[in-house]
Amino acid sequence: MVFFLQQLVQGLAIGSIYGLIAIGYVLIYNTWGVLNFAQGDMVMVGAFTVLVTHSMMGLPMFLAIPLAILMCVVIGFIIELTAFRPLLNAENQRRLIATIGVGIFLRNLVQIIFGADAFPFPSIFGDKTMDVAGLKIVPQDIWNTLVGILLVVLLMLFLKKTRIGKAMRATAQDREAARLMGVNVRRCMSGTFILASAIGGFAGMLLAPKYFVIASLGTTFGNKGFAAALFGGISSNAGSMVGGVVLGILETLAAVYGKSTWQTAIAFIILFLVLVVKPTGLMGKKDVRKV
Amino acid sequence: MKKNEMTLAQKIYRKSRLWVILLLVVIFPLIQIPKNGKMIFLADNYLLHMANISMMFAILTISLNILSGFTGLMSVGHIAFFGIGAYSAAILTTKAGMPILVGFIAAGVISALFSLILGLPTMRLRGMYFSVATMAFGEIIYQLIKNLEPLTGGTKGITKIPSIEIFGISFKDYRNFYYLMLLGLVLVIVLTQNLKNSRPGRAMLAIRANDIAAEAMGVNVVSYKLVAFMASAFFAGIAGAFYAHEMRYISPETFASVESASLLAMMVVGGIGSIPGAILGGAALTILPEVLRFIGEFRLVLYGAAVVAIIIFAPKGLGGLITWIDETLSGQRAKGSKHPSEAEAGEEAQE
């Protein structure tokens, strides 16, 4: 039982990061109508920005992280300006490929600048194991879970309660109607994209201490986050967190009780089953097609 | 100028365009140039190998076009069918000792069977959901290839795949293989072109334009999608068999899901739904990283940027460019008319 709980804690920790990555996909998909395959690489960029500000520039954590997030915001804005905005009215297929192109660009640029080696990164919240009621718990895991869930709750409050958040939701719902209501659609779309980039980048910062900082970080975790987004329902912000946590737990359990090589495959097998049984995901709304 | 009046040059161009291209590709490996007083082939083994791989990717891109270009279903895991084909051919010829021809046919058939298994539950999914299902499928196949060691050799891959031999002629030589590959490519082009112009082909194009309208007109949407999917997987499997016998060594990394993305890029850069575009896109994106080798590590960065740039600045891809040049040269384009891509892009925006 203790062993099982131990795995549950681990799954929860990784799952909440999956959820954070997933929410980036969801935000961009709902506003821009395109799956951003570069979101995973944004996660990787986030890990590298904090590597630069903390390990290389030597700033303390409480300064390094905000600065790194600021860098993610700028990078996100550049991506939006160059690869998303010009293609706003293009066919879906072309926009999808453009995001893939952005991903290839980012991944290889980072690899040139920093090399192909993995960088170790010090733990933000401490990595000494604590003994809590027989469970061996790493503070990093607990903090990742808490920060991840807190961030999602804050984001949802922001979208529900604030003026800007409401404008963003209106833009996602119906661009034309939002414009008629006096919403600055252009700015809202940029804002959502930047927000998603910053959240993705932050997820990367949480990953950095545990999984090393390496250019291929984005591919692995991007796919996981993406599976979580679909699992929870691509139209639901809360769903992506639920999807992420469920995926994280299932994955950890599958690796422990099955074979470790299953860990990667399990995400996709689950994803596949979800698509076949309930394509809109756990918490997604049913989309009605109009002719 | 009236529409039917053509100048002599335009007439000659229209009659000869296909044959000139065919002649050029046929004599390409045979051209000899003097160097250091000796006659050597212009196309060395490296160049021929690149040409072979380009043609193989052209077949693969055409196969993706049958699904995505004709019916509008985007497959983000298409490389899996390529992998299934390559491994089927490799396993049958090395471990089961089957003749190569059997391997080739099996590569296509097994691929098509997998597409049927994947297609039956997923054909009712639309748009993005189907794409994601194919992506999941691609990842699952990749993991299977990597982990089913007794069958696939795991990460070590399969070595010593026999080279092709037909009627005593060995195709081990890249120059001979070039012709075999060319024959394969031409066959695939002809078959695809015929499919496009047939009744099922028109039904598929109708599905791409609007599946609800197509269904209302009596097109059985699900079964035609399934037919397109299976045809697509069949050709991808054949391309895989070609790959296995050309490289004579296969390992899982070639079939990682990242490769599906470059395949999609080939299709979009070539122009979705365009067969000449698929060939050009396949060749261009195979050769581009090689040409860019001189700038070293920067090539993949440039590759990513180039993909984005082509998508932004050439909406119809390279295929659109070819159509434009072709129509200009053959005088089919009325003067003063808009650039075809602009005209069509305008229509899209109205939808």
Descriptive account of the structure:
- The complex is a heterodimer of chains A (291) and B (351).
- Chain A has 291 residues and is an all-alpha fold.
- Chain A has one domain.
- In chain A, 74% of the residues lie in helices and 2% in strands.
- Chain A has eleven helices and two strands.
- Chain A has a two-stranded antiparallel ribbon.
- In chain A, a hairpin with a 2-residue loop joins strand 1 (130-132) and strand 2.
- In chain A, helix 5 (139-161) crosses helix 6.
- The longest helix of chain A is centred in the first third of the chain and has 31 residues, at 2-32.
- With 351 residues, chain B is mostly helical.
- Chain B has a domain at 45-255.
- Chain B is built from 15 helices and four strands.
- Chain B has helices spanning 8-27, 45-71, 79-94, 100-122, 127-147, 149-152, 174-197, 199-209, 211-216, 221-247, 257-270, 275-291, 298-313, 317-329, 340-350, and strands at 32-35, 38-41, 165-166, 169-170.
- Chain B has a two-stranded antiparallel ribbon.
- In chain B, strand 3 (165-166) and strand 4 form a beta hairpin.
- In chain B, helix 2 packs across helix 12 (275-291).
- The model of chain B is unreliable at 336-351 (pLDDT under 50).
- The chains are: A mainly alpha (291), B mainly alpha (351).
- The A-B interface holds A 35, 37, 82-83, 86-87, 89-94, 96-98, 100-109, 111-112, 219, 223, 226-227, 230, 234, 261, 264-265, 268-269, 271-272, 275-276, 279, 289, 291 and B 68, 74, 121-122, 125-129, 131-133, 135-137, 139-140, 143-144, 146-147, 212-213, 257-258, 261, 264-265, 268, 272, 297-298, 300-301, 303-308, 311-312, 315, 348-349.
